[in-house]
Every structure is written in C-alpha cells, then in structure tokens.
Amino acid sequence: MQTGAKNGWENSESLYQPWANRALSYATEITNASPGRGSATAGETQAAGYVHKALSQIGIENLRIQEFRGLRSIWFFLALTFGLAILGHAAFWLLRFPTGMIPALLVSLAAFALSGFMLFRKFTFRDYPLRDTLPHGSSQNVVAVLPAQKEVNQRVVLISHLDSHRAVIWYANDWLVSIYRFLAILAIYGVFLAPLVYILVAITGFVAATWIGVIIAIVHFSAWFTGMTADLGLYSPGANDNAAAVGTVMALAERIQSEPLQHTEVWCAFTGCEETGCDGMITFLDAHSQELSKALFIDFELIGIGERLVYLRSEGVVRKKRISAEVEKQLLEAGAEFNLQPLEGIGAGVFTEMGVVWERGLQGACLVTLREGSPFLPEWHRLTDTPDRLESEALGRAHTMVWNLLQKLDESAH
Ligand SMILES: [Zn+2]
Hints:
Blueprint: H1 13-33, H2 42-57, E1 63-71, H3 74-94, H4 96-99, H5 101-123, E2 136-146, E3 154-161, H6 174-204, H7 210-229, H8 239-258, E4 264-271, H9 279-288, E5 296-301, E6 308-312, E7 314-315, E8 321-322, H10 325-335, E9 341-343, H11 353-359, E10 363-370, H12 392-412
Parallel strand pairs: 3-4, 3-5, 5-10, 6-9
Antiparallel strand pairs: 1-2, 2-4, 6-10, 7-8
Helix pairs in contact: 1-8, 1-12, 3-5, 3-6, 3-7, 5-6, 6-7, 8-12, 10-12
Bound molecules: zinc ion.
The site of zinc ion has 5 residues, from helix 8.
C-alpha cells in the first residue's frame, strides 16, 4: 500500500471528492444523452434541456433559456474567407494578362481586404460582412443566477459551453495538431501578407517574391478545402471539450445552492455555439454586460483530463488580449496550493469565450487543464474525447480551486 504524503489540496480529498463525482456524472450524462452536440443542432438543444432540468431539480429558481440564432459551422466561415483569399491570389496571377497589372492588383486587393476584414471582425467577436449568407440555426444559452444571502457586493460569472466541435482530421493526433497550428498562423496572417507581397512585386518587379505568394496561395487552398469538407465527418463526443466544464459549473452551482455565499451573486452561463465563434457568449453579453460590467468572469475549457491546471495569460486569433494584472493576482493567490500556472496562449487559431469578455473590456480568466509535460489540449476535438477518459482528480482540482477562490472573494466583499 502506498502511504506517500499528499500535499496541499489533495489532503482534503473527502471534501472535494463528492463534488468531483457530481461533475463527472453530469459530464458523463451530457455526453451520453446528446451525442453530436454540434453548434445549433438538436443535440446541443438536448444538452441545454438536460442542464436546465437538472438545475431546476436541485432547486435553482432563477433559471432560464436564452435563445438566439447561431452559426452552425466555423468551417463555413473559413471556407468563405479563404475562398475570397484564393480569389485575391487568382486575380493577381490571372487577370494581369487580359487587364494589365493595375486592374488585376486592384481586384486582388479588394478580395484580400474583404477576407481580412471578415477575419478581423469575426475573431474580435463582432458582426461581419456576408454573415447572413452563412447557415445559422436555433441555439440557446442556459442562464442560472444564484443569489447572495445578503446584500450583493459583487458578481461572478462561471462559463462553460454546451456544444462540441467536428472531429476534423487536423485534430486527430498531436502531430497533425502541430501542423494545423503552424498552417493556421500562415493562413490567417497570409491574408494580410499576400497583398503586401503582390504590391511589392507590382511596384518593384521583384519576381522572386512571387514565390511567397505561391506558398501562401497553397496554404489558403488547403484551408478552403478543409473548410469545404470539414462538415462531412462526425462531431466529437466532447466529454473533455466541454462537458467536463459544464459538469464542473453544475457541481459548483449545486454546492453554492447548499452553501450560499454572503455577498457574491454567482451567474452560470452554459452557452451554445462557442465552437463556431462564441455566438452564445456574444448574445449573453449583449443582454447583460451592463449589470455584469464589474463582474469577474471565469471560463472553463477542457478541465477534465491532466495534472496541470493553467490559466490563459493571453489569447486572440487576430489581436492579442491579456488577462488583467488584478485578476491574475487574485488567481495566483487562490491557485497557489494547486500549483496553478500561466499559459502564454492557447495556440494559433484557437479562441475561447474569454476572448469575447476581454474584447469588451470586461475582467476574467479562462482555466484549462493540461497533461504534465504536454502542450496539447487533451482529446481536443477528437472522436476519442469520451467520458471514460475524464479524471475525477482533475475535476476535483478545478472545483476546489474555484470554490476556494469564491470563498476568498466573498470574504473580501463583506
Ligand atoms: Zn471548448
């Protein structure tokens, strides 16, 4: 028998274990009850219904479903933007012969400008051109508000998304994810770089530079092709991304319900359509950012596998946003015994709902759990992202850390 001493929070196993088990059983039920919880699909609605029912059964009264129209696939959007980029390349290469350099360059620049503008707007979570041409469907957030026992002096918002992503081939193993991350940078920045290269060629006649344009064009073709074919496959079961987070927030809600906070009102937002660009979070903030302008937002992503609890120090696909110094300090204090570490970014081409929060000038942090020694998100967007792989210790760690943080915040709000 192993009798090695445990340190810090692990000593309180008997305290956190019941809550970790609650989170695990919620996560398992969500994954099994609604296979293929794609954004704005019936599976996602089913998951929302499950969460709503379970929360009302534990006696949460201030509970509602917030409906909206959400994008059904981020890959439609990417096919459109990178299709425009290909148009930009083609105009420069092909139109030159019938029209001459200047008209060809102008058409090329117009296509890149529209593509780049769409990328910028989409990934700063704002309205974008041609949005209505893309397929949208009914989606929903489940919003629960847990009242404080006394006067409300602060608000905390716990966020987890309900939907799961397509198990696109690029996510199938760590090697492919590495290539994907590299190509994602090239594809996105290529939309802004390629027109500069073509202007340079047009002005200087420096033909060697056209090779850079060719390489970017090939990457844009790959991105467009992935976008066109991504939705032919299956959805990931989404146990770690993100049923584990939904289960964690549900277990926290249940605990707050039985051990209420004094001066802290806690909101729980279970959102739809995160995977396709956070339409659920955008809808939630459109409705509530006034009353939540001073709130602390805590987003949970892939929280159920691994030994290393981290928070994102920065993120942003087209524009980096950083965690505020004040929130980082609070987190590091509450997270010290859990060995909470910063993660510089979540990877190129990756966003979370904290991006929406930060883009709006609000305060918050995104928590993620990683395996020791691995920079990869465990089971991210894979068919193997099944509930049997979730680890109750990882869920216990995230639960206890955030529970302690809530206690500390509540004490300081007296
Ligand atoms: Zn996720």
